[in-house]
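Lab meeting, item 3. Inverse folding demo.
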């Protein structure tokens, strides 16, 4: 099981989760193109260090993502296969204001 970052992270990118991740598997903090952060499903060791430090409660185990945010699950996976496609999905799910 992997951890998923959901909608509350969009346009926030606090970075507290990046600071505590022992394996550096959270991406997007240093990118101007990315509106949110992403957890690599292949690199995450399921340590849960990121979840409690998120200031907006945007990080969940995949099975615990709230129903309203289930659409963010494929966005997290897709980012590591097609970054541009994942960015487009973020813009679809949460249009820029």
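The presenter then showed the designed sequence:
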């Amino acid at each position: 099981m992997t951890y998923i970052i959901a909608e509350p992270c969009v346009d926030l990118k606090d970075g507290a989760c990046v600071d505590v991740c022992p394996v550096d598997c959270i991406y997007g903090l240093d990118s101007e193109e990315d509106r949110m952060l992403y957890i690599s499903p292949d690199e995450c060791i399921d340590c849960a260090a990121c979840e409690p430090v998120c200031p907006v409660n945007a990080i969940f185990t995949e099975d615990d993502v709230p129903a309203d945010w289930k659409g963010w699950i494929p966005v997290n996976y897709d980012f590591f296969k097609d970054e541009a496609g994942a960015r487009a999905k973020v813009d679809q799910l949460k249009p820029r204001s």
